[in-house]
């Protein structure tokens, strides 16, 4: 039976993703109380860190310990940096009646060596098998019965949705390049040379060439969907905007010529409320601040170009986590997530 109202806890509530979770959860029609946890900000108003919440709530950061907050909650979100979720998950994994949703990379990858190559040694890798990968468009029914979710990465969500219908139709062959541009918020809250505004604004540059950590996640997901190993190359770039991901792929493959790929994509996403297949190229500003994904493709016989846009902090992180929570609890999948963004942004 679906509960009327729930309580939730957010660990790592001061970060950019944590702030987005608070914004969404505090307005969610089925959420009663939100425990926002931060060691440094305990007792301070939420708006002291997230000014946009000033007019939404007078709430403060919780003084509870992670264990105390988890025991009082139905759902625990881990909005912590990569490698830092492990210790908290290991501490709370015994709470069988609680739903755990981790937004870091710590429980996404099934290959321990791959995780440790891109991140760090994993302290509790044996727990990975208890997590379900949370991409609703891939396996919504498994998510409905899951108790622990590994929320996908932002680049991974974009790339996977860009190619998922092709993978499911057995049309991914050889190596598929994905050219992707992300906003500065994808690198987190701590300033660095690649995100500091004077160096990012009016600039565009490639990074992590031939070594982006999301490639492994993308290939793992699309290989599962295709039933065979898929080779993906993520050409990642840092753009001058704060939010959003724009990604494009191209192929020239005779095997595609006899298939109406636009119809294939429309059918694949027909029952997924947040993915919209358009007839014109998508624009990033149309989805910023929302959980929606816009994509479009152009086909000329064997040639195809596909473009997709999403908000890295919403569908690429916090919004998708709330979408997963809705599915796990039997709520309407779109609850608390249908608001439009601001245009122009």
Task: Note down, in words, how this protein is organized.
With 345 residues, the chain is of the alpha/beta class. The chain folds into 2 domains: 6-130, 3-Layer(aba) Sandwich (Rossmann fold), CATH 3.40.50.720; 155-312, Dihydrodipicolinate Reductase, domain 2 (2-Layer Sandwich). Helix content is 28%, strand content 21%. It contains 10 helices and 13 strands. It has helices spanning 16-25, 66-71, 85-92, 112-118, 136-144, 154-168, 197-200, 214-226, 261-268, 314-329; strands at residues 6-11, 31-37, 75-78, 99-102, 132-133, 148-150, 175-182, 205-206, 231-238, 245-252, 275-277, 293-300, 303-310. The strands form 2 sheets. Strands 8-9-7-10-13-12-11 form a 7-stranded mixed beta sheet. A 6-stranded parallel beta sheet has the order 2-1-3-4-6-5, with helices on both faces. β12 (293-300) and β13 form a beta hairpin. It is globular and about 60 Å long. It starts with 5 loop residues before the first strand and ends in a 16-residue tail after the last helix. The relative contact order is 0.14. The mean pLDDT is 94.
List the helices and strands and how they pair.
Elements: E1 6-11, H1 16-25, E2 31-37, H2 66-71, E3 75-78, H3 85-92, E4 99-102, H4 112-118, E5 132-133, H5 136-144, E6 148-150, H6 154-168, E7 175-182, H7 197-200, E8 205-206, H8 214-226, E9 231-238, E10 245-252, H9 261-268, E11 275-277, E12 293-300, E13 303-310, H10 314-329
Parallel strand pairs: 1-2, 1-3, 3-4, 4-6, 5-6, 7-9, 11-12
Antiparallel strand pairs: 7-10, 8-9, 10-13, 12-13
């Amino acid at each position: 039976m679906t509960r009327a109202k729930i309580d939730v806890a957010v660990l790592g509530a001061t970060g950019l993703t944590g702030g987005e979770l608070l914004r969404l959860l505090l307005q969610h029609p089925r959420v009663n109380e939100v425990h926002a946890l931060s060691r440094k900000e305990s007792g301070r108003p939420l708006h002291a860190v997230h000014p946009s919440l000033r007019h939404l709530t007078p709430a403060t950061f919780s003084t509870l310990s992670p264990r105390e907050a988890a025991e009082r909650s139905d759902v625990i979100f881990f909005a912590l940096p990569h490698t830092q979720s492990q210790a908290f998950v290991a501490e709370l994994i015994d709470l069988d009646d609680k739903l755990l949703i981790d937004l870091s990379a710590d429980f996404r990858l099934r290959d321990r060596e791959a995780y440790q190559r891109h991140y760090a040694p994993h302290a509790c890798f044996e727990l990975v098998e208890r997590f379900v990968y949370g991409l609703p468009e891939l396996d919504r029914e498994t998510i409905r019965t899951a108790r622990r979710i590994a929320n996908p990465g932002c680049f991974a969500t974009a790339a996977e949705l860009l190619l998922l219908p092709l993978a499911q139709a057995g049309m991914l062959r050889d190596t598929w390049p994905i050219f992707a541009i992300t906003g500065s918020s994808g690198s987190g809250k701590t300033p660095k040379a690649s995100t500091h505004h004077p160096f990012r604004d009016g600039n565009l540059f490639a990074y992590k060439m031939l070594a982006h950590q999301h490639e492994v996640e993308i290939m793992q997901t699309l290989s599962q969907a295709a039933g065979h190993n898929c080779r993906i190359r993520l050409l990642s770039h840092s753009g001058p905007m704060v939010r959003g991901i724009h990604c494009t792929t191209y192929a020239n493959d005779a095997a595609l010529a006899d298939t109406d790929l636009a119809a294939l994509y429309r059918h694949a996403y027909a029952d997924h409320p947040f993915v919209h297949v358009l007839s014109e190229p998508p624009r990033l500003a149309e989805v910023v601040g929302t959980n929606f994904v816009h994509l479009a493709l152009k086909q000329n016989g064997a040639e195809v170009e596909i473009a997709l846009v999403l908000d890295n902090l919403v569908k690429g992180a916090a919004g998708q986590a709330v979408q997963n929570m809705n599915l796990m609890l039997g709520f309407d999948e779109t609850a608390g997530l249908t608001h439009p963004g601001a245009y122009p942004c």
